[in-house]
Amino acid sequence: MIMSCAIAIDGPAGAGKSTIARILAKELEFIYVDTGALYRAIGYHVLGLGLETADTEGVIDALQDLTVAIDYVEGEQHVFVNGKDVSGSIRTPEVSMAASAVSAIPEVRAFLLDVQRGMAATRSVVMDGRDIGTTILPDARIKIFLTASPEARARRRHKELLEKGTAVTYDEVLADMVKRDYDDTHRAASPLRRAADAVLVDTSEDTLEQAVARMKAIVLERL
Hints:
Elements: E1 6-10, H1 17-28, E2 31-34, H2 35-48, H3 56-62, E3 68-73, E4 76-81, E5 84-85, H4 93-102, H5 106-122, E6 125-129, H6 132-136, E7 142-147, H7 150-163, H8 170-186, E8 199-202, H9 208-222
Parallel strand pairs: 1-6, 1-7, 2-6, 7-8
Antiparallel strand pairs: 3-4, 4-5
Helix pairs in contact: 1-9, 2-4, 4-8, 7-8
């Protein structure tokens, strides 16, 4: 096992960051940290309280009594909100949009900053999100910006949602993807962008296996 190394993977929604990062971490014997799940947890919490994500003050107030944690159960990552396992509940399109909205609030990002940095300070990690290499772990040893065309990402997400029994059309998923891209790249707090020292990887034409192989080759070359 390679010790004390942080791998930061950034990119737009649906680029396959979480899936690829999880596989990569397992093969390298690193800890996988899904930061997007943390924002989804807050989005889930806000919706559960009946709040509008546009109600910034309400969202900030909702953080006061909130505990968000990641733990591993039989080797699988689970996300907890105030002690409740919400791993399966945070993957809906509604929560996805809520996560994108609350992530634009500086107080929300500050709330999760220490949690994320604390994980990377004590273990070798693969961490993915929107601003890992630019804001969360600017000194990460390896940075990768993983992307794909909106159409390719929408096809993959649509297939995934259908397999989970979620009734949604490809056009709806594509529209959601385009909106999230705009929101993520135009928000005032830590917008999605490629770090100057990040390696660009476009997986529009790749299978999952090909994408993982490309990422692993980049990591091993730099280690």
